[in-house]
Write a structure and sequence with these properties.
With about 450 residues, this protein is α/β, with parallel strands linked by helices. Helices cover about 45% and strands about 15% of the residues. Helix 9 packs across helix 10 and helix 10 packs parallel to helix 12. It binds one RNA strand of 74 nucleotides through helix 1, helix 5, helix 7, helix 10 and helix 12.
Length: about 450
RNA sequence: GGCCGGGUGGCAGAGUGGCCAUGCUGCGGACUGCAAAUCCGCCUACGUCGGUUCGAUUCCGGCCCCGGCCUCCA
């Protein structure tokens, strides 16, 4: 089964063919580091992490580039509001971003270039565009001339007329055409700026991704990803900048994830329903957030609900229960990703179907009778989990998770063990009333007991 | 208004021209001192109206409804 991906350029699912059989280049638009990551930011990070994991099993070499946007007017505004320096904000926010997504089992990309470290590459690309007549300088700005590119609008399926008609912002007087967009703009002394042929200034919104993807992956590369809202204008403009500057085709396959809603409503600051990854990590383990995110196909809109997250945790309880029951058995080395999981992922990252197969593997493990079958089933389940970035924890660690900040209220593990011992004594004495009372008492404190063939185990509710 | 994507059982969510998604929940059975977990089984589906077809949730068309984007946005 070849890898199939939905390509926004063609609007259909295509067989993925890398430019080189031995190497795949993947570029995904990363965060603008002005605030903590919210759950909508996490979606592409998780989706493309699954794609990255899959590509690494299919090709000898993969280069995954995800940028950090650390020059942006939102950052500038944040700095002037808080009085902190821009660097303080971007450094701290970048660290928080890394911490948050690591908790979601997201692998680091191979390269994570920062925009401010690549200003020279951006200036060079802008100069190329000027030389080739695709850009013009005006009043300290440099603008991309949209009419200079014949098939501008191909990715988003827009005509020039539509874009001009749809332009809602006031058209700046120095624009030759309302659709032209900024490549470089002047900075006042209080704003970050770099010396350029057009005076001290800073890059426009789109040029950094063009410059950095070209630098690290070449003028043409395989896959460019991001959220659906970036199709226009960001990705459309990236294509325009890169193709016109280099004269080569840009990314061949464009993959976009759908948007995220919260409890049926658009997530927005005005509605006050923006969920930060950090807040969610205090409500549920990172793997529950990740599994929940993967339970809807990446191309579909996702409606994030508290109930859905609770369900995701229940599902993982089941998976980890199966693994806990075979905790003392070894994992066979070199077991491949089960074929049905791989087939689901190769079919345009059908993670909901892959998760359905994960449940079947779990049932297989629960039903296995011989030790050999159990080892095989356990190894297969873990290999499948790895491909999705799930089941990376020790089962006991999973069941001991409790919300952050609840340490003070949480019963200590020593106290739990003592209660279990007392209950065992009561049961041996056939004093079931006392045993049930202990169990009830623990349950009231959020600790659930289960009597199994291997003794009594517990988990936090 | 323009462009795009959807409408599946109590909920979430895949998929397919004729047979099972899967999970959560609920119900019954096995197991258990009782539970829980697990296993076995069960229930409730494909917006609407037409068309094509031996047969459509699946293909085609109309209609209704929902969502996203249209230079802040993952």
């Amino acid at each position: 089964m070849p890898l199939m991906l939905h390509n926004t350029l063609s609007r259909r699912k295509e067989v993925f063919k890398p430019l080189s059989p031995s190497h795949v280049g993947l570029y995904v638009c990363g965060p603008t580091v002005y605030d903590r990551a919210h759950i909508g930011n996490a979606r592409p990070v998780i989706v493309f992490d699954v794609l990255y994991r899959l590509l690494r099993t299919l090709y000898p070499s993969v280069t995954y580039v995800r940028n950090i946007t650390d020059v942006d007017d939102k950052i500038n505004r944040r700095a002037s509001e808080s009085g902190e320096s821009i660097e303080t904000i971007t450094t701290r926010t970048t660290r928080l971003f890394h911490d948050d997504i690591a908790a979601l089992n997201v692998l680091p990309p191979d390269l994570e270039p920062r925009a401010t470290a690549h200003i020279d590459a951006m200036i060079a690309m802008i100069e190329q565009l000027l030389t080739k007549g695709h850009a013009y300088a005006a009043e300290g700005h440099v603008l991309f001339s949209v009419p200079s590119m014949a098939d501008y609008g191909r990715l988003s399926g827009r005509s020039m007329e539509e874009m001009i008609a749809g332009a809602r912002v006031e058209v700046a007087p120095y624009k030759k055409n309302p659709a032209d967009f900024v490549l470089w703009k002047p900075s006042t002394p209080d704003l970050p700026g770099w010396e350029s042929p057009w005076g001290r200034g800073r890059p426009g919104w789109h040029i950094e991704c063009s410059a950095m993807s070209t630098k690290y992956l070449g003028a043409s590369f395989d896959i460019h990803g991001g959220g659906q809202d970036l199709v226009f204008p960001h990705h459309e403009n990236e294509i325009a900048q890169s193709c016109c500057a280099t004269g080569a085709p840009f990314a061949h396959t464009w993959v976009h994830n759908g948007h995220l809603m919260v409890e049926g409503e658009k997530m927005s600051k005005s509605l006050g329903n923006v969920l930060s990854v950090r807040d969610l990590l205090e409500q549920a383990p990172g793997e529950a957030i990740r599994l929940y995110m993967l339970s809807t196909h990446y191309h579909q809109p996702f409606d994030w609900t508290a109930e859905g997250l609770r369900q995701a945790r229940s599902i993982l309880d089941r998976l980890y229960t199966a693994l806990r029951n075979v905790a003392d058995l070894p994992v066979r080395a070199g077991v491949r990703i089960p074929i049905e999981i791989r087939a689901a992922l190769e079919d345009d990252l059908n993670t909901p179907l892959a998760l359905a197969h994960l449940h079947e593997l779990t049932a297989d493990l629960n039903r296995a009778e011989t030790e050999g079958d159990k080892i095989w089933a356990k190894s297969s389940l873990l290999a499948a989990g790895e491909s999705l970035g799930l089941l990376r924890l020790d089962p006991e660690a999973w069941f001991r998770w409790h919300p952050a900040g609840a340490e003070a209220n949480a019963l200590s593990e020593d106290a739990i063990d003592a209660a279990i011992a007392a209950r065992r004594a009561a049961r041996e004495a056939k004093d079931f009333a006392a045993a049930d009372s202990i169990r009830k008492d623990l349950a009231d404190k959020g600790v659930l007991l289960e009597d199994g063939p291997r003794g009594t185990t517990w988990k936090r509710a």
